[in-house]
Amino acid sequence: MSEQSLEELPLLETLDHLLDRGVIIAGEAVISIGDVDLLYLGLNVVLANVDAIIRTSKR
Amino acid sequence: MKSVAIGAHLLRDDVEPLASATVVGDLFLSAVEVADDQPLGDRELLLRVADVRARLLDVATFVAIRYGFTFTSAADAHARCAAHLARWQRLLTEHRSRVEMTLKVAAASALPRPDRREFTSGADYLRALHAATQSASVDPAFREQAERLIASPSARHRWIHRDERSVELAALIDRERVDDVLRAGEELRRAAPAVPFLLSGPWPLEVFADDSDE
């Protein structure tokens, strides 16, 4: 399933699998202004739709 | 530089030279390397990762890691994946010759998607959204045909509610049977022309590697 298949598949389906499938690894982010770290976030989902968040929260 | 993870693989040769390979225990993480300030939502990056992901699957089956996980070193990657490694190794060994395929079916009936503006409580909105998602159903006759044509040749299968508009059948298929399943999809189209569906794949281990779906 390389270039040809990617072209045949609807782009949204491909991105849906990328963004909404697979194992979730905990992430983290620091929101800063200038050189000052203001907020630390522990993340389970960096990019996901609301339905994915609901499924995750059911665990 | 930071690495945007794509998947976990059994062998280094399953990864290189298509992507960078980072050792995590007895496994290897595939990733694409980007600048530290590269936004993960960048369209070109998403498409690049999707393309590499597809090429990696041509080489060997791997455990898909949901987009968004980045790491800066092998030690960082290992620390954050350590809890998963034994399970991933078992899955990769057991299903190395298999891929996932997905049948996404338009729901025959479902509750309407709730409108966030009608809820003062975010929790109530999420509960209503969940109820709408779980209410999506597939025509029983179509489901029976899908079970016969798509699920029966699979090693494992699972029906999943993802949103209020569709229901998905995820199937774990031996690689040599992918073409059979694609032909089964054509037969399903002829048998149920009125039911909108999309049969896609092969995909890496996604649903069957995600313990939140178990």
Query: How far is the N terminus from the C terminus of chain A?
Result: 32 Å
Q: Indicate the multimeric state.
A: heterodimer
Number of strands of chain A: 2
Q: Find the structural class of chain A using helix and strand composition.
A: alpha+beta
Question: Would you tell me which CATH topology of the largest domain in chain B applies?
Answer: Alpha-Beta Plaits
Low-confidence stretches of chain A: 1-6, 44-48
Strand proportion of chain A, as a percent range, falls in 25-35%
Helix content of chain B: 25-40%
H/E topology pattern of chain B: EEEHEEHHEHHEEHE
Q: Give the amount of beta strand of chain B, in percent.
A: 25-35%
| Major beta sheet summary of chain B | 5 strands, antiparallel
**Rg of chain A to the nearest angstrom?**
16 Å
Largest sheet of chain A at a glance? Answer: 2 strands, antiparallel
Secondary-structure arrangement, i.e. CATH architecture of the largest domain in chain B: 2-Layer Sandwich
Global shape of chain A: elongated
Whole-number mean pLDDT of chain A: 61
**Mean of residue pLDDT values of chain B:** 90
Describe the 3D structure.
The complex is a heterodimer of chains A (59) and B (214). Chain A is α+β, with helices and mostly antiparallel strands and 59 residues long. Chain A is built from 3 helices and 2 strands. Chain A has a two-stranded antiparallel sheet. Chain A starts with a helix and ends with a helix. Residues 1-6 and 44-48 of chain A have low confidence and may be disordered. Chain B folds into 2 domains: 2-95, no CATH class; 98-213, 2-Layer Sandwich (Alpha-Beta Plaits), CATH 3.30.70. Chain B has 6 helices and 9 strands. In chain B, α5 packs antiparallel against α6. The mean pLDDT of chain B is 90. Classes of the chains: A alpha+beta (59), B alpha+beta (214). Chains A and B meet through α1, α2 and α3 of A and β1, α1, β4, α4 and β9 of B.
